Amino acid sequence: MQEIAELAGTSVATVSRVINRNGRYSKETEARVLKVIRDNRYVPNESAKGLRTTRTQTIGVVVPDITNPHFSSLVNKIETGMFERGYSCIICNTNESEQLEIKHIQSLRAQNVSGMVLISCLRYHAEFRNLPTVYLDRPAKDTAINEGIMICSDNDQGGYLATKELLAAGCKKILVVKAHGDDINQTIRFQGAMRALEEEKVRFSKDMLLDLDHVSIKQAEQEMDAFLKKKKIPDGIMTTTDTIAVGIYLSLRKAGLRVPKDIRLTGFDDCYLAESCGPGLTSVHQDVSQMASMAIDFIMRRLKGDAVEDGRYYLPVTLTRRESTAY
Amino acid sequence: MQEIAELAGTSVATVSRVINRNGRYSKETEARVLKVIRDNRYVPNESAKGLRTTRTQTIGVVVPDITNPHFSSLVNKIETGMFERGYSCIICNTNESEQLEIKHIQSLRAQNVSGMVLISCLRYHAEFRNLPTVYLDRPAKDTAINEGIMICSDNDQGGYLATKELLAAGCKKILVVKAHGDDINQTIRFQGAMRALEEEKVRFSKDMLLDLDHVSIKQAEQEMDAFLKKKKIPDGIMTTTDTIAVGIYLSLRKAGLRVPKDIRLTGFDDCYLAESCGPGLTSVHQDVSQMASMAIDFIMRRLKGDAVEDGRYYLPVTLTRRESTAY
DNA sequence: TTGAAAGCGCTAACAA
DNA sequence: TTGTTAGCGCTTTCAA
């Protein structure tokens, strides 16, 4: 920067002003400085800037599993949008581990990120009130916590819609396949399903719930294999994630059961898995673009210094109908 | 840090030494400093460290499309492995755009990343010789370029294996579906396919090549729809990516063509799409874990100061057989 | 084994 | 509109 200043015949302060476009300089010096910067391919040092201002042009994004299509497209949208606004994203995978999540967040803070997008059911509001933070995609595990900005789909309604669809298709014996673990959405979607059953006065017995250790195609497939051996065959299956639904497909296929003829099936997320598996999977559609852009907006507004009120934002979901629930 | 020094009754220099474990201090002071650090939850400021040392605990990872399962699992492995070694990853999506890639790399350099993993056919060796860099998954577009460390699968052999499998299944009229664009792997895999055909003295005419604008399920499906309308129906299809193969599946299903009965199909990458679509897709398996860990190792070695020789490393591929080529 | 002090590149307060 | 300068938190040389 010193060098740029000398070449442009000015001071470092002015160079800094031009770079940060704060306006307090003449058109001529601006042009001169800009030219020298371009000619020398000068790139400002972010560490120095970060040290001086205690904020950097980076945003931390904490995600449970980048390998899950739902999250990868969410991350893709966030990363793209942030970069357009001059920010880079540090993506952190927690593999659904709370411990790892905490470590990652510490590391992000050490790196002076300017903001954070957390896909997590944990809440850290007390620890970093000054750091613009948005909780995305997952409500707080502790429902008593109201602080912070939270954006997610109306998961309860999603579970409801999917189950209603199965009932409309004439299903009487509905199996629900969810996962337990830290993602509270799984439970919320299940509750939505229960709401739909109650509304239609359909009884649900506990043995029609398959509760997986974690979300994975393999696990869903194996558990379903076991279920089919032991129990009565359902005529409809509601799953809480497309990934699980794909595992169910594999198991049913092996067992010679046809979708939708013998069994109807619904997914959740409506990621590309839903349209690419055959037969096409009816799935609850989440507006990923909207979620990402809201998260970006909130952070940008706080970065500009605007006061942004805490709140929970629930985005509406829709049902994308495909062959798997045809009737 | 100042504060820590005072509380521990020592100087900032010593605190720094303890943090960086350089050994030049007594056991007692070490214990004292460490305790104060823990008690106060002190986290060193990465910006200051970065400014002083011109390297940070971050690695830049440039990836064409995080949404593609092959890349998302590659990134997942890299991110996890790096974090275990104390590094965070800044993930950059280029959406296959050279321009965006260059912007991203500039931004990474401004952020003083300690190393880079680039999934790209471009080469930047001249610009940053000092920055530990590994080119992953994609050979140089300009084959004359020999500089740098490059790790990728033996894509030619992959194309060869897939096509051989189709031939072994008795296919006579083989359609190849690839994408053009910046990813030279697409072409290399195609060449491997040609090698297999030549070896078996099977003629290949240009109208049996479908060359997509870019890799996408949708595009593959649409182009295949059009192809089926105009041309003779093939009895085998070799694709250069699982994603494309999924699009082909969709098109064939609509047309009432059965896999593998009427048409046999192969994919490439062997990502989870391959096992989850039905019927299971025979696909060329890439050793993603190995690729990621080699990349990490090379960067770590260079970070330690070891001289690492430039070179091209081609990892062997295998064929994972599933139903789609059964015979 | 320790401490003092310089300085990494930048921003912002102050002065001009 | 511009320049001078202090100092952000850290590492590292030099001296003790």
Please explain how this structure is put together.
With 327 residues, chain A is an alpha/beta fold. In chain A, 43% of the residues lie in helices and 17% in strands. Chain A has three domains: 2-44, no CATH class; 52-153 and 288-315, Response regulator (Rossmann fold, 3-Layer(aba) Sandwich); 155-286 and 319-325, Rossmann fold, CATH 3.40.50. Chain A has helices at 2-7, 12-19, 27-39, 46-53, 69-84, 98-110, 155-168, 184-199, 217-230, 242-254, 272-276, 288-303; strands spanning 58-63, 88-93, 115-118, 133-136, 149-153, 174-179, 209-212, 236-239, 264-269, 282-285, 311-315, 318-320. In chain A, the strands form two sheets. The first copy, chain A, has a six-stranded parallel β-sheet, with helices on both faces. In chain A, strands 7-6-8-9-10-12 form a six-stranded mixed β-sheet, sandwiched between helices. In chain A, helix 7 (155-168) crosses helix 8. The mean pLDDT of chain A is 92. Chains A and B meet through helix 4, helix 5, strand 2, helix 6 and helix 10 of A and helix 4, helix 5, strand 2, helix 6 and helix 10 of B. Chain A binds a DNA duplex (16 and 16 nucleotides) through residues 1-2, 10-14, 16-17, 19-20, 24-26, 29, 44-45, 47-54.
